[in-house]
Amino acid sequence: MRPLTFSKMDFSQSNLFGYIEDLQELTIIERPVRRSLKTPEEIERLTVDEELSDIERAVYLLSSGQDIQGTSVVANLPVLMRQNPAETLRRVLPKIREVLHVAGVEMQLTAAVSFLTVLQEESVSIHTYSHSFLHIILQNLEHRDAGVSNAWLETLLAVIEALPKETVRHEILNPLVSKAQLAQTLQSRLVSCKIMGKVANKFEAHIIKREVLPLVKSLCQDVEYEVRTCMCRQLEHIARGIGTELTKTVVLPELVELARDEGSSVRLAAFETLVNLLDMFDADDRSQTVLPLVKSFCEKSFKADESILVSLSFHLGKLCNGLYGIFTPEQHLRFLEFYKKLSTLGLQQENGHNDNQLQLQTLEQEKKYISVRKNCAYNFPAMMVFVDPKNFHLELYSIFFCLCHDPEVPVRYTMAISFFEVAKLLNSDVHTIHKELVTLLQDESLEVLDALVGHLPEILELMANRGENNGSESKLLSIPDLIPALTTAEQRAATSLKWRTHEKLLQKYACLPHIISSDQIYYRFLHRMLTIILTNNVLPVQKAAARTLCIYLRYNRKQEQRHEVIQKLIEQLGQGKSYWNRLRFLDTCEFIMELFSKSFFCKYFFLPVLELTHDPVANVRMKLCYLLPKVKSTLKIPTDKHLLQQLELCIRKLLCQEKDKDVLTIVKRTVLELDRMEISVDAEQLEKEKQQTEGRSTNINDKMFEKKRRDSKASSVLAKSINLSVPGSSSGTSAGKEEKKSKLVRSQSFSTQALHPKYSNIDKCPNKSSATGYTSSVSGMGKSCMLSFSDDSFRTHSTGSSGNAAFLSSSSSRNLFNSADQKNSGNKESQSRRMSIKNRKSNS
């Protein structure tokens, strides 16, 4: 359609008709939209009274509603069964049964799924289910639409597993006799085949022999190849049900006959069933019956339809190992050569020519050949077991090389998945596939890389522990291209749009400290992880890189390198200009708390984390609040009591100064959580401090006792002089007043010196209500030493779990006592001087 331009329009006759055609095209485009709209009458018909209950509404919609409304009720049947099973069975289910007779395909498919859901949820007993639902399932089993019939069949097969034997026998098995007759429809006979395969595991062998096997033989000889194929695929289930003896006498002859059937699909089904039943046949049956059939099948496979080759290549590993004990050396070599031929099917040889000089292959043939080579890659570990891993390099390495370098991605993808199994089987010879590992790591397809990375740590560990190099350094130093391949793989994943592959790769690279040296990780991988955290835009990728970086740091024993990385984390992430980087710093700190010791985190990251309480971005402060409980759990008392004070101060500032409502709500919630936490106690450090405190208090008590003794002597001498010179009444009054003054000064000195200078302005908080609320909520926080501020006093709180830990240091308390004693002694000296002056005046 030509674009409509209205700036310069030519209204000549020829152009006018062009514009009209464009407008007509626009009208056609809009027409479906108009048709999808509902008219007022249609809306009226779709409207239902809101006051109706769920059961009443379901009955109403099934009775008089439209098809889409009825389908909605059927889809909602499991919910109704959970809410009110009795009423649903009494009123709703009969209506559904009526509607299904004339229902369309959509409602039929919905009903089959709903019935299966009711069974799986066990909303009613199995007896009630079989009484209410089973007949509806059986009635709709032979629906004219094949999709609907298959849906009801899947539901019935699931029901058979749960039904009791007698119900299955009377309701399902007995009607099969008539439905499996040749006079019945093709669909009915196909359904009978699948039901017989299912019921074979429900009954004893003699019942199956008497009631099921005659029908099985009849259906195996049906005139329609679809029925023979379907019945042939059910013979495996029947054989498992009847046991080895009946399988040998009844099932095996039928399989031999079906393997020679004129229909290729029947022969294919017979071959696959034989392979799956190899464990049920004895050595004579395998050598005399199964092996000739398999050889004939393999010889004819290249001449017949390529679809047989696809199936043969898929089952070849199981087949070779199942018949391993009866192979002669010649047969063993023949099957190995057959596998090699399939592994390169459709590929040109090194000389540039095709094996059989075939002409250009069709696209369908190429697809089948790719499927064959993919199946060969899938069976490669099984073929290694077949030839013995010791012979890998001689017999299979060339095929392994070809499959790893196959031009088609599905083949290399399957090889990448199988790589770990191959490495395990090679054991000490795993060094022989080093180059192929590098090749797959450098594969141009990210699908191949994703498949290989799934077991990359295990593969690298096998190579490191069992490789040729047994020196003290990394055992992977013998592979010069491995580290470049790992870095190239990561960079290719980083530049793609498949961030999940990149995330998975970074997670798996966390294994490298066990594989390569610390210097190699530091120079080739660690800084790359930091770059990803700083520059990548995908959050899961950034978190994966952060965790892997923390693991690299954990295993790095060089202090200079450690300090450099820690400094970069703090400066570039924690103090970064982008708030996104600061958020990632908190994620990284969370990983550090998980992987490192508590003391390591407290030493390097505790204070940088608390600095983010002043962050200008609310999201950063909010994330920090969520992290604070984990941060507090790293503390130990009394070793980290100064950090605990910093944590409490930061929380107080958040409560007082936070303006964002969401952040403030989280802060209050975090305070309650912190209040319930218990801080771990360092018993050894606590005992040392207790001993030091007791020593100091002993010294202080001795000094105080000596002072009091001297003061008491001086006061006794003074009292004698006073009694001689001053009347008793006046001296007693003045002494009492002076003593009260001394007590007042002493109490003022205690109150002024007790408050630490750092917290002297805590009551100047602009939001007094917040501060008061925090005080009440955290006064007993963590059952450890917490500060509680009020307008009049400063108090310390402690509980039994935190011992004698307190925020007042022993030195401050010692200064406090000394100041009080000095003021006491000063008051007493001034008092004696004043009284002596008064005595002299009275004498004069």
Which percent range fits the helix content?
over 70%
- pLDDT < 50 runs, ≥5 residues: 1-14, 26-35, 349-353, 467-475, 717-825
The main β sheet shows up as: 2 strands, parallel
In whole angstroms, the N-to-C terminal distance is 131 Å
Strand content: under 5%
What count of helical segments does DSSP give? Answer: 42
Class of secondary structure makeup? mainly alpha
What would you call the shape? Answer: extended
Report strand order across the widest sheet. Answer: 1-2
The overall strand count is: 4
Q: What does the average pLDDT come to?
A: 79
Using only C-alpha atoms, the radius of gyration works out to 44 Å
Characterize the structure shown.
Helix content is 73%, strand content 1%. The N and C termini lie far apart (131 Å). Residues 1-14, 26-35, 349-353, 467-475 and 717-825 have low confidence and may be disordered. The longest helix has 43 residues, at 683-725. By secondary structure, it is mainly alpha-helical. HEAT repeats lie at residues 212-249, 251-289. Serine/threonine-protein phosphatase 4 (PP4) occurs in different assemblies of the catalytic and one or more regulatory subunits. Component of the PP4 complex PPP4C-PPP4R4. Residues 703-713 have a biased composition (Basic and acidic residues).
What is this structure's SSE topology?
Elements: H1 13-36, H2 40-46, H3 54-64, H4 67-75, H5 77-83, H6 85-100, H7 105-121, H8 126-132, H9 134-139, H10 146-162, H11 165-179, H12 186-199, H13 205-220, H14 225-242, H15 244-259, H16 264-276, H17 283-301, H18 306-322, H19 329-343, H20 363-378, H21 380-387, H22 392-395, H23 397-404, H24 409-426, H25 434-441, H26 446-453, H27 456-466, H28 482-495, H29 499-508, H30 518-535, H31 539-555, H32 559-574, H33 579-595, H34 598-604, H35 606-610, H36 618-632, E1 636-637, H37 641-657, H38 661-676, E2 680-681, H39 683-725, H40 728-754, H41 768-778, E3 786-789, E4 794-797, H42 810-843
Parallel strand pairs: 1-2
Antiparallel strand pairs: 3-4
Helix pairs in contact: 3-4, 3-6, 4-7, 5-6, 7-10, 10-12, 11-12, 12-14, 13-14, 13-15, 14-15, 14-16, 15-16, 16-18, 18-19, 18-20, 18-21, 20-24, 21-24, 24-26, 24-27, 25-28, 26-29, 29-31, 30-31, 30-32, 31-33, 32-33, 33-36, 36-38, 39-42, 40-42
Protein name: Serine/threonine-protein phosphatase 4 regulatory subunit 4
Biased composition (Basic residues): 835-844
Subcellular location: Cytoplasm
